[in-house]
Amino acid sequence: MGRKVGMVHAVYDNGRLFGQLATELVPGVEVVHFVDGGLPAMSAESLRPRVITRLRALVSAATESGAEAILLTCTAFGRLVDEVKVAASCPVLAVLEIMIDEALQLHGTVGIVSSHPATLTFARVLQEQASLEGRTIDIKTRACSGAFEAMQRGDRATHDRIVHENLREFVKQVDVVVAPQPSIESAMQEFARLNRTVPVLTSPRLSILRLKETLHSLA
Predict the structure, then answer these.
(1) What is the maximum span of the chain, computed from C-alpha positions, in angstroms?
(2) Closest among 2, 5, 13 to 182, alpha carbons compared
(3) What is the pTM of this model?
(4) Whole-Å CA distances, 132 to 35, 124, 204
(5) For a disulfide at 115, which of 38, 73, 107, 148, Cβ 3.0-4.6 Å?
């Protein structure tokens, strides 16, 4: 029997994006996708218990489907992984936690870029984790105003153009760019191909590679 992983998404496009990367990076591994498109509207702290309940249901379904490991792809709910994984009998990974781990290994000024304002809370979480580990980290953030609204209208070209305009200036101020938001992946990869001034780390690719490592550890 082949290997199988589960992915839990809060955005439908993430299924396509992470699925394509899984085909590239872990060929032959079956991916089962579970999507709750209502989660992005439930970011208020008062709704946290309901979000946890819904995520647990999806994680449980992924486990029942035979997944050997599960990835939560929405950065907004990554910090809930400890409360969600109790519903699974296999490892549960979160994009947010993976990106925090990766960012803590970086040196110099770390630039965090996003087209969704909520994603910039990643900077606060990163700083908090660094403090817990007794480390200091120099962080700069850049919110690409107007880009997310363009994407909501289905105007990916305008979204990517706004992101690129911000990045051209931003890369002059940092030593590495980190993009924790999965939906900004295509814009970041295109920019990285055309501008090799600083390293660019994106969450989907790093997360699939971590998922691959987890599968190998279970073999």
Answers:
(1) 50
(2) 13
(3) 0.88
(4) 33, 12, 26
(5) 148
Q: Which ranges of 26-142 would DSSP assign to H, the alpha helix?
A: 48-64, 81-84, 95-103, 121-132
Residue 138 carries which side chain, given as an amino acid letter?
A: D
pLDDT digits 0-9 by tens, 28-56: 999 999 999 888 778 788 988 999 999 99
CATH classification number, 4-95+205-218, choose in 3.40.50.1860, 3.50.50.60, 3.10.450.10, 3.40.190.10: 3.40.50.1860
pLDDT in tens, 140-191: 999 999 998 898 888 999 999 999 999 999 999 999 999 998 888 889 988 8
Cβ contacts of residue 145 below 8 Å, gap of 6+?
162
Supply φ then ψ for residue 32, to 5 degrees.
-110, 130
Cβ neighbours for 2, distance < 8 A, ≥ 6 positions apart: 28, 29, 30
Which residue carries 């289905």 as its tokens?
Answer: 154
Question: Is 147 in contact with 174 (CB distance < 8 Å)?
Answer: no
Find tokens 């040196």 and name the residue: 107
Q: Which residues contact 35 (CB under 8 A, 6 or more apart)?
A: 8, 9, 10, 11, 12, 14, 15
3-25 pLDDT, tens digit per residue, is 999 999 988 888 999 999 999 99
